[in-house]
Amino acid sequence: MPTRNINLTEHYxxxxxxxxxxxxxxxxxxxxxxxxxLLEEQTQTEADKIKILRHxxxxxxxxxxxxxxxNATTEKGVRSTIARxxxxxxxxxxxGQEH
Length: 99
Prior knowledge:
By secondary structure, the chain is an all-alpha fold. It has 2 domains: 10-68, no CATH class; 73-98. The chain has 3 helices and no strands.
């Protein structure tokens, strides 16, 4: 297994020590690996969200090019359109998490 040397601030050194005490039979490597796993998951989630937003933007631009568009002239209409788009994005996000 590769080895890396890292420098921690006093704050993070104390935090790692606290986590080792809180989780018995733990060590600094396990604490740092847990943090890296969370960062990896967060990074993937953000990448998935960007992918969904790009898909929705492409779909929207294609609709505009075909003469379709949003016809929301009132605040209620705008809110309704935004809610519909949020539902659509949510479905796409759930679909992406299944794969």
